[in-house]
Design brief:
Oligomer: single chain
Structural class: mainly alpha
Radius of gyration: 28 Å
Largest sheet: none
Number of helices: 5
Distance between the termini: 56 Å
Shape: elongated
Helix content: over 70%
């Protein structure tokens, strides 16, 4: 049978192990990026200024998208009427050009979606805060890329993957 002193030592070691495990779990949680920084509210004037800039950018992107789709449609019509006598190389070139144009249109549409998402986050109060770690996104980054959802360090980690 264990002596009383040994029992107390074992109980103390067990408590210390549980405490260390809890601390390492908290550290692991913070390392995973689930830590949320307290969000400060910005003034109504600042929020309105950001919203106006985002809405303006959204309008520009939607106009650009409409214009691009219109050009693609027109080019496609021209290609169909001007395809007589094309060999395989001509057909391949036209297909490649069409895919590039569609890719550009999709990129613009993706940017539209990003700005719409930024507007949603602005309305919810999450604009300017990293979605992954919860830290504030630097003002310089938001000025350069207003629809940013990740801080610089989280974006760098994402790009390395």
């Amino acid at each position: 049978m264990a002596k009383p002193a040994e029992t107390r030592t074992t109980a103390t070691k067990s408590t210390a192990t549980k405490s260390t495990a809890a601390k390492s779990t908290a550290t692991a949680t913070e390392a995973k990026g689930t830590k949320v920084a307290p969000k400060t509210t910005r003034s109504a004037a600042e929020t309105e200024k950001i919203r106006v800039a985002l809405v303006e950018r959204l309008g520009e992107l939607k106009d650009e998208y409409r214009s691009t789709v219109s050009e693609i449609t027109e080019l496609q019509r021209d290609r169909l009427t001007d395809s007589a006598g094309d060999d395989q190389a001509d057909t391949g070139t036209k297909t490649f050009e069409r895919e590039q144009e569609i890719s550009l249109a999709n990129t613009i549409l993706e940017r539209v979606t990003q700005v719409e998402r930024a507007l949603d986050r602005l309305g919810e109060g999450g604009y300017g805060w990293c979605e992954r770690c919860g830290n504030p996104i630097p003002v310089e980054r938001l000025a350069a890329f207003p629809s940013a959802t990740l801080c610089v360090s989280c974006k760098q980690l994402e790009e390395r993957r």
